[in-house]
Design goal:
Shape: elongated
Helix content: 40-55%
Largest sheet: 2 strands, antiparallel
Structural class: alpha+beta
Radius of gyration: 17 Å
Strand order of the largest sheet: 1-2
Strand content: 25-35%
Number of helices: 4
Order of helices and strands: EEHHHH
Number of strands: 2
Distance between the termini: 33 Å
Length: 63
């Protein structure tokens, strides 16, 4: 069950359990950051990654 996440929300004192696949909880920012990290680790130049991700400066990319 490594690829699943259980979230319990309490509504009126009663726990409602929902099981999600991990990918269902990933937001755009998480995906963008994972993409940038993975291609950076593989040796792509920072200048190219900044163009892909829409960062305006190297400083904002490195943050």
């Amino acid at each position: 069950m490594l690829d699943k996440v259980k979230i319990v929300k309490y509504i009126g004192g009663k726990g409602v359990e929902t099981i999600y696949e991990k990918w269902q909880l990933a937001k755009n920012h998480t995906m963008k950051r994972s993409f940038a990290t993975n291609i950076h680790v593989r040796g792509y130049p920072s200048k190219i990654i900044i163009e892909f991700t829409g960062h305006s400066t190297l400083k904002s990319f490195e943050h």
